[in-house]
Amino acid sequence: MSKQVLTILGATGSIGVSTLDVVGRHPDRYEVFALSAHRQVEKLAALCLQFRPKIAVVAGEPEAQKLRSLLGGAPEIEVLHGAVALEQIAAAPEVTTVVAAIVGGAGLGSSLAAARTGKRVLLANKEALVMAGDIFIKTLRDSGGVLLPIDSEHNAVFQSLPVGFDYGLKHCSVRKVILTASGGPFRNTPREALRNVTPDQACAHPNWAMGRKISVDSATMMNKGLEVIEASWIFGVGAERIDVLIHPESTIHSMVQYEDGAVLAELGNPDMRTPIAHVLAYPERIASGVGSLDLVKTGKLTFEAPDLERFPCLKLAYDALRAGKNASVTLNAANEEAVAAFLDGKLSFDRIPDVVAECLDCVPGMQLNSLEDILAADQIARQAAHRVLDTCKDPA
Ligand code: NDP
Ligand code: MG
Q1: I want to staple 11 with a disulfide (CB 3.0 to 4.6 A). Which of 16, 121, 141, 151 is the partner?
Q2: Domain boundaries, given as residue ranges, for the chain
Q3: CB-CB neighbours of 266 under 10 Å
């Protein structure tokens, strides 16, 4: 068995650390070529000393200098910085497998670089697909690369599909893809109380430990909206064939309903090391460190329909997917800016969907034919979001 050679983009994040936990259990299978972080230099230094990559990438020159000094005892590790370096480690010829786990639109360039160079792309960075799903899938087809989804819902769907499925369910007799959602920390919170929730409350997810941006997205259910769009690209299905089902226990990670009425699902403890181990080893199976699911202890599995009035972000995302053109780019960019403002104490939680909705209303529709078009649409949407945010500076 030849070793997989890995670049892990976003190594210091929640997905990055879980990935390295699984990788560390299988030194015979995986070799780490490169790791990246943004500003958490000390954390990256510790990971570098443990996994000994050839290259480490950080945000800018000051971070690079600090990392070099922290790695004084390991001068063989080359330290680079910036977006071009991220693309370089994603595209390096030695690398077989890229874990794309940077958060937000910042991950698009490096995720695409991995796709362009025919890698196995283990994708957590859902925002890249929301922004550029069409280009991403075409790029992979042209390069012979493979996309394997880390996002637990998409990974569960992938596991529930016939082996050999190829970015489209046309031939699989699939009626529906059913994405489950925990409903987040505010599933039963009175709507009036949402105005005063703090970033720490929003980030306290009942079942999953994740980075702060995706935790806020889970609390607004924008995360599920982004996942609907992500699913439409990965599985080649329209909005009408993707359902969302609230399932507070997060035991069923998603399901596929077939034409004959059969429903296949993947179940397990809510721990991202399961989908990460699945895509790392696919089509084999390896130990991930996750314990056995105890269904007796779980007792009941419950389900309910999502409340689109309480969670308008989910509806906004469905609408954006149906609208096509630049709507998903605008949705994603406006959401990133609104979530950043909320985490910064500059916007109340309940106004996040308002900011996104206003941006979708005010940014004109435009055709996107290239990556340049997408990046331009992203900038236009972020500027619109800043204008909207300037009009609602009251977190109180
Ligand atoms: P985290 O915030 O925990 O980690 C983000 C990583 O990206 C960190 O390594 C961070 O570096 C790096 N980073 C942040 N900003 C930039 C930037 N501008 N340029 C380059 N690198 C940057 O996020 P998560 O691990 O939670 O999520 C990562 C992705 O995976 C997201 O797209 C998320 O939606 C998706 N995902 C996450 C799940 C989870 O359970 N966490 C589940 C399913 C999907 P630094 O640490 O230095 O800031
Ligand atoms: Mg998910």
Answers
A1: 16
A2: 4-149, 169-270+294-315, 324-396
A3: 20
Residue found by looking up tokens 């181990």 in the block: 277
pTM of the model: 0.97
Task: Spell out the residues 6+ positions from residue 62 whose beta carbon is closer than 8 angstroms to its own.
Answer: none
With DSSP H G I counted as helix, E B as strand and the rest as coil, what are the percentages for the chain, rounded to 5?
50, 15, 35
Give the model confidence (pLDDT) of 107-126 as tens digits: 999 999 999 999 999 999 99
CATH fold of 324-396 reads Rna Polymerase Sigma Factor; Chain: A (1.10.1740)
**For the sheet containing 252-258, what is the strand order?**
242-246, 174-181, 252-258, 263-267
Question: What's the rounded Cα separation, in Å, for the pair 168 and 233?
Answer: 9
Enumerate residues with CB within 5 Å of ligand 2 (an ion).
151-153
pLDDT digits (tens, 9 = 90+) for 304-362: 999 988 899 999 999 999 999 999 999 999 999 999 999 999 999 999 999 999 999 99
Summarised one tens digit per residue, pLDDT across range 225-248 is: 999 999 999 999 999 999 999 999
Question: Best substitution site from 7, 9, 15, 84 to test ligand 1's pocket, by max atoms within 8 Å of Cβ?
Answer: 15
Å from CA of 57 to ligand 1 middle: 14
Distance from the alpha carbon of residue 315 to the mean position of ligand 2, in angstroms: 17
* Contact 102 CB / ligand 1 (< 6 Å): yes
Using pLDDT thresholds of 50, 70 and 90, give the confidence band for residue 171: low
